[in-house]
């Protein structure tokens, strides 16, 4: 989006359903953003009444993503990113971190929420040296994602695939694994996969709150075991320390002993 649009398309605005809570807007609310509605705030508050720790999970997830991207740019030399399920723009978005370290970096964001689309067009604009683009597509259609992303990214060069808190929205686990495999298959050796998702088996209060949310009529988000999250990386080479609680993945020096949260993720290289 080197030429940002300042006014969302009225047709797109009409598609935004403000009568039911939406996970991207609730996540934005927990991160301290302003791009949410009363229905999202109510749902977010109801969730935090059961499990106040969700705010820490949301912010820890964002910090994990930032550290992943910084590693990929500074240590792995990655200059291309495909961020699927980007959600609403907040602070430290993928292109901001990547282009802050390497202005020539190219980023393609993917989401299929009309509110995300409207905000992406106004906020996700690139450095002059690099490129930032947005694809209106569903994670369940990896073929379309790859086809359109190829207009901005060169899939002959190593690419960082970002799947942050999106695979939990794919109810069928085998389908989620197939999506990851299809996307990674299109990327060359030296590419990386970054995944983080809410995890089961760590915090029963979190699980109770998420199950209640899933039964509320909102779009469900499925927590998965650490083993299931780890299996998304099959065939890849983990960057140490592998799949861990997001707070434990290469924490900033001097940040103290990280608190384990029920959100696990990792980063791995395609051989």
From TrEMBL:
Keyword vocabulary terms for this entry: Methyltransferase, Transferase
Protein name: SAM-dependent methyltransferase
One Gene Ontology term from the biological process aspect of the record: methylation
Key word S-adenosyl-L-methionine present: no
Entry's Gene Ontology molecular function annotations: methyltransferase activity
Species of origin: Streptomyces hyaluromycini
Domain of life: Bacteria
Chain residue ranges for the region called Disordered: 249-271
Keyword Methyltransferase attributed: yes
Matching InterPro entries: SAM-dependent_MTases_sf, SAM_dep_MeTrfase_SAV2177_type
């Amino acid at each position: 989006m080197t030429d940002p649009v300042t006014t969302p398309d009225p047709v797109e605005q009409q598609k935004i359903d403000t009568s039911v809570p939406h996970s991207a807007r609730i996540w934005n609310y927990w991160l301290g953003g302003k791009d949410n509605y009363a229905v999202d705030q109510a749902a977010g508050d109801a969730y935090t009444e059961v499990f106040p720790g969700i705010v820490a999970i949301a912010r820890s997830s964002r910090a994990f993503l930032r550290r992943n991207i910084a590693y990929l740019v500074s240590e792995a030399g990655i200059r291309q990113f495909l961020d699927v399920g980007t959600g609403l723009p907040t602070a430290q978005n993928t292109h901001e971190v990547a282009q802050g370290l390497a202005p020539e970096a190219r980023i393609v964001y993917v989401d299929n929420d009309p509110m995300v689309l409207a905000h992406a067009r106004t906020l996700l604009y690139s450095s002059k040296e690099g490129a930032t683009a947005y694809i209106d597509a569903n994670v369940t259609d990896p073929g379309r994602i790859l086809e359109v992303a190829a207009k901005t990214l060169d899939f002959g060069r190593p690419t960082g695939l970002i799947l942050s808190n999106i695979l939990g929205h794919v109810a069928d686990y085998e389908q989620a694994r197939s999506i990851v495999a299809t996307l990674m298959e299109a990327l060359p050796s030296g590419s990386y996969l970054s995944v983080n998702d809410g995890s089961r088996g760590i915090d029963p209060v979190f699980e109770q709150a998420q199950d209640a949310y899933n039964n509320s009529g909102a779009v469900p988000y499925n927590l998965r075991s650490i083993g299931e999250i780890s299996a998304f990386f099959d065939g890849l080479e983990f960057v140490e320390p592998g799949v861990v609680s997001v707070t434990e993945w290469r924490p900033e020096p001097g940040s103290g002993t990280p608190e384990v949260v029920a959100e696990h993720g990792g980063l791995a290289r395609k051989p």
